[in-house]
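Recall the central idea of this unit: under ordinary conditions, the amino acid sequence of a chain determines the structure it adopts. In this exercise we apply that idea directly, starting from the sequence alone.
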Amino acid sequence: KTGSTDNKEVFLYVKEGLLMRLKNICKSFKDIEVLKDFNLNVDEGEHIAIMGKSGKGKTTVLNIIMGFELPDSGETELPNEISAVFQENRLCEDFCAISNVCLLKGNKSLAKEIFDKLGIDSTQKVNTMSGGQKRRVALARCLARNAELYIFDEALKGLDEKTKAVAMTVIKEYTDGKSAIFVTHDINEAKDFADRIVEI
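Accordingly, the structure predicted from this sequence is:
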């Protein structure tokens, strides 16, 4: 956005609105404190990467955002529509790829487009697929839904480098202009995807 004052052009950066907020979140499991006064804001259209060693609370943060866990204390402001790729594929093995998408009210035509780009036959049954193919079905299922926030929890694990590069390109294409959280142990993946990296 531009304007002028005293014949000088002024450039104004207009920040997107806030999509979600976690404020002073604390979470313990029995006697183990996983999160203490954790804060995270995600703006509309922002891509965030979350990094940290195993056991530091990355998945707990995602579970709180998705409503699977409640914080012991703190404040949350969360979007209503979330689409996710979990660490496990969570597919219906006896169904074909496109049926797995349609079960979650994904856009069928969009899913076929994404499957083509990921090199997946949308009519193939999941139980005949390799691990890498199943991972790409889980990715397509996530991306084919219309959501306010997209979550990718170790979304590229199990993919070879060539397939991983293709998948990352597709993820960035279909989350362009949308809010997304990308959890990874790979700093190169984080830098490739995110506007901002959060260390836990």
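The radius of gyration is 19 Å.
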